[in-house]
Amino acid sequence: MSRTRLMNTDNTLPAGGGRRPEATNRRHLPLGVREYLWQDARLRQQLEAAVNRAFRTWGYNTVILPMFEFGDMLTTRTHAAAHDRLYRFLDMEGRTLILRPDMTAAVARLVGTRLAGMEGPFRFCYAGSVFRHEETSGLEYQQEFRQAGIELVGSADAMADAEILACMAAGLNACNLSDFRIVVGHADYYGGLLDALDPQPSDARQLRWAMHRKSEHALARFVESCRPSPGQRATLENLLTLQGADVSGLLERAAGFCLNRRMESALLNLRKLTAQLDAYGILERVTLDLAEYRNLEYYTGMTFEFLLPDSAAVAGSGGRYDGLIGKFGRSRPAVGGILHLDRLVRAVPSNQAPQALSPKSPLCLVGQTKSGVALASMGRLRQQGRDIVVHTDPLSESGLLALGRSLGARVVAAWCDPTQSFHVLACPLPECVGPMDVAQFEQLLESLQRTELSGPDQSTAIMAGGDV
Amino acid sequence: MSDATCRRPLRISLPKGRLADDVARHLRDGGLEVPDFSTSRQLTLRTADGTQEYIQSKPTDVPTFVVHGGADIGFSGLDTLREEGVDVLEPFTLPIGICRISLAGPRAWRHVDLHLKDHLRVATKYTRIASDWFVSQGINAEVIKLNGSVELAPLTGLSDLIVDLVETGRTLQANGLVELQHVLDSRVVVIVNRSASRLRENEVNRFLACVRPGPPGA
Asked: Do A58 and A142 belong to one domain?
């Protein structure tokens, strides 16, 4: 993967690595961050708004969290995976700060401390960027992730787990991305297996690898070195087959391989969860995977991932983390999840066409004017949702028409100070071209459809619900 | 039901070159219809029933196609997979393409304790595998990337040792080199895109069932 984008057309210059003139990074982005232009920017904003609107209708309250916090906030144990990927810097007193690698820890800190005196349950939703040095797994290199997420704090019941899944499904539905799959696992099934086997650390690593890669070969090597009892061996040999969309059949089969209470309680929990998902009407979207390995220091129950068709990266993920809030204060059970907004942008079908980006066309372009009457008229129109660009530099009529054409403005007009009226230069209704007083002008623009609904903005399908 | 939502046939990535014939034979033995790329200039070929599409690429690109979802299933050497380091599922290996990656060098190095060398230079095509292995062994080594004819490196003084693929050992011998240490056993491994394993569960499982080797000795 090339880590430098070659902006220079002189291809005799090295693309990277070599010694180059100073300030070569001035025109480049660091790898793993993105900028969004025009339709894409609008689309991401709309997806974020649509997801949050859906979350709020389930009673989730918006919370706005700080971009950075003290480095002590995250412990190595709970954030083992993220710990060596943090963006760290120092404050004036030399204390370590971190750019937030996720939002959940911040919510947990807030609930554990400031809300310790209040009875729950609490429902929170949020949207924002999180930052991690992401080692490339070959799939993609990303360092700034835009997330929208929810946390339900104060309930240990499987009903809460189901609500999180159903609510996130509602978020995707609100983006017209209803063709998702949910992969559900459980930390206690794998955790119970580890309790029963009590392997050496290096063997445990081997087992995790086998589960992560679904590798029969690696699992066989683990079985060879940890010498399990016959019952344990049967569980291990069937472990990688305990996944699929036949949820009830799988749960029944998995019951035969339980080695202790912890594994049994995982299945009991999953039975309650899947029954509730059935009631929510999303069970058919669920794939169960009992051989899914997750960070056990963090997740304490159900875990999940959302997948979208033809997309290799997960669209969302989360799970139950009953141990986290207690690290900050009063302990409470909690479950939550996030959607990756950057990945949703790419998954929107209309966004996959090979179409160049362009700025949104305004409804109307008006030539430079200092008139309070004209500006007040346009103010009224804007309140009605009509978008109007006032050119800020002097321009001839023909120049204004040319600019209007290049912007895609449907109406082009100039303000005429002596007559205190607009002069319409171009309009879809030819009979309207010519001088027009303020009231007539406002009537004309109000009669024209919002460009939002007819213009080239391809993301309008998501805008069904109004404001951003 | 999950499979109904997918818009294209199951796509399978095959390696060109050394492994191509063995892999194709293995698939045909499993009752699969594998198009013959040697008689076509096309890079993608579909089966007659249109349920599978095969693509052929450089072996090192097979893991890349699979991890990004350009192909759902791929056949790769374990050496290539580890070198590319991509995050895919690897349900099982096949008893073909068997070879090993070894540390090799001039005969005089046989009794040298590599931990006691301050500045070891090693040439290889497999920089990731070599670096990871030296770290795991606690040996300090500078790894130099070469794209072929790695045996030249010790002969020309470019490096002290090499890490390279060994099948019979004859190439090493012809250049006055000997195997010093075993780094990795390689064979063909079936790899599956993570998402495809969920989104096209039935298709993937049907295909894997045809490819899965029988128990040893069966």
From this structure: yes
Contact yes or no for B92 and A217 at CB 8 A: yes
Q: Rounded to an integer, what distance in angstroms lies between the CA atom of residue B27 and that of residue B33?
A: 8
Q: How far is B161 from chain A (nearest CA, A)?
A: 26
Write the DSSP string, B12-32.
EEEE-GGGHHHHHHHHHHTT-
Per-residue pLDDT reduced to its tens digit, B45-75: 999 899 999 999 999 999 999 999 999 999 9
For residue B6, is pLDDT > 70?
Answer: no
What is d(CA A265, CA A326) in angstroms, rounded to the nearest whole number?
A: 22
Domain span at A220? 38-352
What's the average model confidence in pLDDT over A440-452? 79
Together in a domain, A287 and A311: yes
Chain A neighbors of B199, CB-CB under 8 A: 181, 307, 309
Contacts of B194 in chain A (CB under 8 A): 312
Q: Are residues B136 and B94 in the same domain?
A: no
Is residue A459 predicted with pLDDT exceeding 90? no
Q: How far is B169 from chain A (nearest CA, A)?
A: 26
How close is the nearest chain B Cα to the Cα of A315, in Å?
10
pLDDT at A444 over 80: yes
Q: In this predicted model, what pLDDT tens digit does every residue of A4-23 receive, in sequence order?
A: 444 445 555 555 555 555 55
Q: How far is CA A380 from the centre of its chain?
A: 36
pLDDT of residue A15: 54
Looking at the structure, do residues A391 and A321 belong to the same domain, yes or no?
Answer: no
- Per the structure, the complete domain to which residue B143 belongs is given by 99-185
Chain A positions in Cβ-Cβ contact with residue B92 (cut-off 8 Å): 215-217
Are residues B165 and B201 part of one domain? no
Determine whether the interchain pair B88/A213 forms a contact, defined as Cβ–Cβ distance below 8 Å: yes
Q: Are A332 and A372 in the same domain?
A: no
Spell B15-49 as b/e; 16+ CB within 10 A means b. Answer: beeebbebbbebbeebebebbebeeeeeeebbbee
- Same domain assignment for residues A128 and A199: yes
A144 with A268, same domain: the answer is: yes
pLDDT at residue B212 greater than cutoff 70: yes
Give a yes or no: residue A118 inside a domain: yes
**Which domain CATH number covers A167?**
3.30.930.10
Cβ separation of A139 and B67 shorter than 8 Å? Answer: yes
Task: For A279-321, write each residue's pLDDT tens digit.
Answer: 999 999 999 999 988 787 889 999 999 999 888 889 999 999 9
ipTM of the complex: 0.86
DSSP codes of every residue in A280-325: HT-GGGEEEETT----TTT--SEEEEEE-TT-SS-SEEEEE-TTTG
Same-domain check for residues B8 and B75 = yes
Query: Which of A211, A214, A308 to probe by mutation at the B interface, max B CB count within 10 Å?
Result: A214
Residues A180 and A239 reside in one and the same domain: yes
| B84 occurs within a structural domain | yes
Query: Do A320 and A389 sit in the same domain of this protein?
Result: no
For B197, the token pair is: 């394993």
